Amino acid sequence: MPPRSKRFSREESDDAASTLVIRNVVVLNKRTSLRMEPEMWDALNDVARREQKTLHDICTQIVERKPGGASLTAAIRVFLVNYYRMSSTEDGHRGAGHGQGDPDIITAALAPLRSEEEVV
């Protein structure tokens, strides 16, 4: 497999620390490790809390319903995006400042990423 393009990466060296976090989860009664961004882990924990399930239960349900060729991490990311999209409302978007033509909305949404870069 050819190496991934670094064209959109701000990293200047290959030995820069990864921002991905590895955690173990139990899926279908088997322990597996997943590697995702801290924001994905936070969102997954938020969903589990809201749905009154464990993180392991959510991951198991995702595995049981994901398309055959999809990786678990990819299926989790798609699930999270769709979960939040289903729960968003126009009032919530207005309250967050979305749709106002704010040129800095991308900067604001990526602020957690920027602050983690500064810590590293």
Task: Give structural notes.
This protein is mainly alpha-helical. It is built from 6 helices and 2 strands. It has helices at residues 38-50, 55-65, 72-87, 90-96, 105-109, 111-119, and strands at 21-27, 30-36. It has a two-stranded antiparallel sheet. Strand 1 and strand 2 (30-36) form a beta hairpin. The two termini are 29 Å apart.
Low-confidence stretches: none
State Rg. Answer: 17 Å
Strand arrangement across the biggest beta sheet: 1-2
Number of helices: 6
Largest sheet: 2 strands, antiparallel
Strand content: 5-15%
Structural class comes to mainly alpha
Shape: globular
Helix content, binned percent = 40-55%
Order of helices and strands: EEHHHHHH
Measured between the Cα atoms of the first and last residue, the distance is: 29 Å
Arithmetic mean pLDDT: 80
By DSSP, the count of extended strands is 2
Secondary structure layout:
Blueprint: E1 21-27, E2 30-36, H1 38-50, H2 55-65, H3 72-87, H4 90-96, H5 105-109, H6 111-119
Antiparallel strand pairs: 1-2
Helix pairs in contact: 1-3
